[in-house]
Structures are given as structure tokens and as C-alpha cells.
DNA sequence: AGAGAATATACCTCAAGAGGAATGTTATTA
DNA sequence: TAATAACATTCCTCTTGAGGTATATTCTCT
């Protein structure tokens, strides 16, 4: 995987926030919307961008698309994602996002796919 | 230092090569030209870009501008430069650049500023 | 089959930045 | 002081990508 391609993915704030959330586990699009508070198009396009370049994988689960970090990562990618995680700890936005994520779905890993089954009713826009 | 700003600096191949060379120590512009075999404008502009964003520092030494990595680096920058160095080891271009650098000026650290005193006569374009 | 929910894509506008040609700037040397 | 070396900057063209609006696609459920 080309180093430059990786860095191109990392040089947008929204994408960094997405990758930061994904470090905690798979998520569906509506969760990103909930946590990041950004319009659907924006999130969907950034996810598409990351997917095309192999920074994330996705799988359909009924009506939901579950995004996750690649199961098998080339060394350069793993190293940079680890570095990002390290740096994210110092940043208030990233920390707040994680806090918000836990708040929205404390049961995340327990409930079905990604806790989305109830998320539909919880969303308002 | 904003993470995104750092990544913006890293998402160009020429800049990565520059930073890779700088990891071995300070260098002047003519050395970059020698090793990277890229036109002067291109190198100068990328160095300017990196300088504006605090990824490199420079100091005039007579006719030469000596570029180096910042003496004092914020954590995010240090982490990412370290990560880059780690990844660069797997890449043939980066390895070749370093080899070329050593070949051009094996005495680098011993001779004056950056070994540039003789570099002028060595260049041909 | 039809409706609605979740997500993706097309199309448009705007800004940033890459690369090159020409020219400017600063310092050294004759 | 004039010439030259080493760099920087300006101006121009072209591509990429960000963000938004509107619309399409894919499932699920009734």
C-alpha cells in the first residue's frame, strides 16, 4: 500500500474522526452521524473515499452498512493507524467522540450488529 | 500542532523523500536536487511548504540554505516522523535515496555546513 | 407491490495545491 | 561594481477533493 495514499486519507479532519471511532470496533453509518453530528452525504462520501483506498472495509447487514478497519492490514497502514491512535489521545475532539460513542451505545458489542437496531428510532433528523 | 496539517505535509511523495533525507541530518537545497533529481523550483517550493507548516527549519549559511528537522518537535510530529522512518525502511525509493545521499557525500557530517562547498562544482544542470 | 428507512451517487461550485517557465533576491567573488 | 551561484517567488494551468442539493439504490416490512 502506497504511503502517500494512506496520508491522503489522513489529511481530512472528518476522516480522522471516523478512523478514531473505528479503532473501538465496527460501526454503521448512522452511528457516525450520531456521534460526529455531520450530514449523511458528508459521512457517506468520506467512508467511500476510505473504502476505495482500503483504509476501511464494509459489509451489508440488512438495511445497515457496517464499517470496520481492515481485518488484515499492511505494515504501513497498521503503523500509521497505531500512530494516529497514540496522537488522538491528546486531542479533545477525538476524546469527546469516543465518550459520545460510549454514551450512545454502551452495549455496542453486546447488542446486534452494531447496536443499530434501536438507533433508527433514536435518531431525529 | 494540528494533526491534519501534519498529514497534509506527508501526502506528497517528494515531501516524503525530503523528510526521509532530513532524518539523517541537515541538508542544503543542492543536496536535495542531487539526490532527488528533481528541478530546483519543485524542491524549493516543497521546502517552503514544509517550512511554513513547521515540519522543517532552515538557516542561511552564506550562499546556502541549510534545512533540518525542527530541534523541538511537538509529540504528534515526533510520533509521525518516527512512524514515517519506520515505514520508509520497506520502500525501495527511500532506501535508494539514502544510499545516494551517502554516496554523494560520505563525509557529510565532517566537512563544512553540509558538504556543500564542493557540491557546487559537482552539479551539472 | 408499495412505502419507508438507510445509505450511496451524480452533479455542481469552490479552493487548495502540484508543476513548470520566468524572474526576483541574497550573498559571494572577481 | 559587475557577474555569478544558490534559492525563492510570481504567475499560470490543471487536477483533486470538499461540501451541498437532489436523486438513486437496496433492503425490510406491511
Report on the structure:
Two copies of one chain form a homodimer. Chain A is mainly α. Chain A has one domain (3-104): Arc Repressor Mutant, subunit A (Orthogonal Bundle), CATH 1.10.10.10. The first copy, chain A, contains seven helices and three strands. Chain A has helices spanning 3-10, 13-22, 29-36, 40-52, 75-88, 92-104, 119-122, and strands at residues 27-28, 57-61, 64-68. In chain A, strands 1-3-2 form a three-stranded antiparallel beta sheet. In chain A, helix 3 (29-36) packs across helix 6. The termini of chain A are far apart. The model of chain A is unreliable at 118-125 (pLDDT under 50). Chain A binds chain B through residues 3-4, 7-8, 10-13, 16, 75-76, 79-80, 82-84, 86-88, 90-91, and chain B through 3-4, 7-8, 10-13, 16, 75-76, 79-80, 82-84, 86-88, 90-91. The structure holds a DNA duplex (30 and 30 nucleotides).
State the assembly state of the protein chains: homodimer
In total, the number of domains of chain A comes to 1
The total beta strand count of chain A reads: 3
Number of helices of chain A: 7
The CATH class assignment of chain A is: Mainly Alpha
